[in-house]
């Protein structure tokens, strides 16, 4: 039987290459993105704006992206489209330097496509994050010129910008003029009140929101809980906590932290602790809320234990150390406080602020180390305020150190020449040691200059605080 000749089976045609835009969408790292970009250059498809847009979106917005890389890609594009402008503005608006986003807008007006309804909310986010009132007003004007001032997303951006810049009356006017208000815009206005230390107004607006039948989201509730924390509104906070359970709202990190802080600031440390322990995920703000509130209410050992646990989990920040040093004030652990204070800059690269110096001066003063406390005031990079000096003066009074008290009062008068509150303490100290001529002299000075109460500082020492 003869063999049949082998049939030549033709090879299948090569698969067409995937579109670069699809390849760009599959990028998971900046290294892969760079390879796609290089392929665009090699194949002469560098002008493919659709593919370039996908690359830019990854670089500017993805957690694994790179803003400098996004800027470089944008700059190498001959004619960026509106999506590319808006994407880069959006990425820069949420960056540590949001003002960079605002610099793109003049370029867009000069060379690029006209701005659209997506451009202005991103620009307003940049203005809000930069607290740039002038930019916010200019963007508002341009939105009017382009007929987009009635767009709900633009209005929401304006409310947020004006709120962040402290212009609550302008923000509220825009809010009140809206024909329809949704959960997003209510949340923005409530948050504006909270950020500007207007907790009563925030709670009032939340009640108005509920009466209007607008469903709050987790961000709304987190803001109102912050207002309750500042107001001492424990009952209202409990009602919101109940509402969260009733509505089946998921308690994430932000909302969980707000609950911990609300209960903590209202002195319900055990409830705050239970919620804290139940949280599957915590961020720095969560740890800070628990540490600072525990320290404030005298749970020093628990606050310090939390700090040690936090160190193993994440990096503390300057707020953390205010809580830790406050705990040291309650426990009286001077040596540990000294180590913590020194470690801030050496170990964590955190520069001590006025609040940290204030805690140390208070602690050293309470423990009778008045000379060391005075030296710490002298070492500060900026001038001590009346709160720090007041803590040292109170310590001088409690320990009967007239010499240091005289120098402290002299510093107080340099900080605020019209404020003679320190004279009252010093006069009483003179009387206690029988220096009656000095008592008469100080009272004459006070009578001639007028007596003014010392804001933010009391001559009454409260060891139970």
UniProtKB/TrEMBL annotation:
Residue windows of the PPR repeats: 81-115, 151-181, 182-216, 317-347
Biological processes per GO annotation: RNA modification
Top-level taxonomic group: Eukaryota
InterPro entries referenced in this protein's UniProt entry, alphabetically: E_motif, PPR_At4g14850-like_plant, PPR_rpt, TPR-like_helical_dom_sf
Keywords in alphabetical order: Hydrolase, Repeat
Listed EC numbers: 3.4.24.-
Top enzyme category: hydrolase
A Pfam family: E_motif
GO molecular function, one term: RNA binding
PANTHER family membership: PENTATRICOPEPTIDE REPEAT-CONTAINING PROTEIN, REPEAT-CONTAINING PROTEIN, PUTATIVE-RELATED
Name of this chain's protein: Pentatricopeptide repeat-containing protein
Organism (species): Apostasia shenzhenica
Gene name in the database record: PCMP-E13
């Amino acid at each position: 039987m003869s063999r049949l000749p082998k049939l030549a089976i033709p090879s299948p045609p090569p698969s067409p290459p995937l579109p670069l835009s699809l390849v760009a969408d599959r990028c998971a790292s900046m290294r892969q993105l760079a390879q796609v970009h290089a392929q665009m250059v090699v194949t002469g498809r560098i002008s493919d704006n659709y593919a370039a847009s996908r690359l830019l979106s990854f670089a500017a917005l993805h957690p694994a992206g790179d803003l400098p890389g996004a800027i470089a890609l944008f700059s190498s594009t001959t004619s960026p489209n509106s999506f590319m402008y808006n994407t880069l503005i959006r990425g820069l608006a949420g960056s540590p330097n949001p003002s960079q986003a605002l610099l793109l807008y003049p370029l867009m007006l000069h060379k690029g496509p006209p701005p659209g309804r997506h451009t202005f909310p991103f620009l307003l986010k940049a203005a809000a994050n930069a607290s740039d009132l002038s930019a916010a007003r200019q963007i508002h004007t341009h939105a009017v010129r382009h007929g987009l001032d009635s767009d709900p997303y633009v209005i929401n951006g304006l409310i947020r910008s004006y709120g962040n810049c402290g212009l609550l009356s302008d923000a509220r006017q825009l809010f009140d003029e809206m024909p329809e208000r949704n959960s997003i815009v209510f949340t923005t206005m409530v948050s504006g009140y909270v950020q500007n230390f207007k907790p009563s107004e925030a709670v009032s607006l939340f009640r108005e929101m509920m009466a209007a039948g607008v469903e709050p989201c987790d961000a709304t509730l987190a803001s109102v809980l912050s207002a309750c924390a500042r107001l001492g509104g424990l009952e209202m906070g409990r009602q919101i906590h109940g509402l969260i359970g009733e509505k089946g709202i998921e308690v994430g990190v932000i909302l969980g932290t707000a609950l911990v802080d609300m209960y903590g600031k209202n002195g319900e440390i055990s409830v705050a602790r239970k919620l804290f322990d139940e949280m599957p995920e915590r961020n720095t703000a969560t740890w800070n809320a628990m540490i600072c509130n525990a320290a404030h209410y005298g749970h020093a050992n628990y606050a310090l234990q939390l700090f040690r646990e936090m160190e193993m989990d994440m990096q503390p920040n300057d707020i953390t150390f205010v809580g830790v040093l406050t705990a040291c004030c309650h426990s009286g652990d001077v040596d540990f406080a000294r180590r913590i204070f020194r470690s801030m800059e050496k170990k964590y690269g955190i520069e001590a602020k006025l609040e940290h110096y204030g805690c140390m001066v208070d602690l050293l003063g309470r423990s009778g180390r008045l000379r060391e406390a005075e030296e710490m005031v002298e070492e500060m990079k900026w001038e001590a305020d009346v709160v720090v000096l007041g803590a040292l003066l109170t310590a001088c009074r409690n320990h009967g150190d007239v010499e240091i008290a005289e120098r402290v009062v002299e510093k107080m008068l340099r900080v605020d020449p019209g404020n003679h509150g320190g004279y009252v303490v010093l006069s009483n100290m003179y009387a206690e040691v029988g220096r009656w001529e000095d008592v008469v002299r100080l009272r004459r000075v006070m009578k001639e200059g007028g007596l003014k109460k010392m804001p933010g500082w009391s001559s009454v020492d409260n060891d139970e605080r």
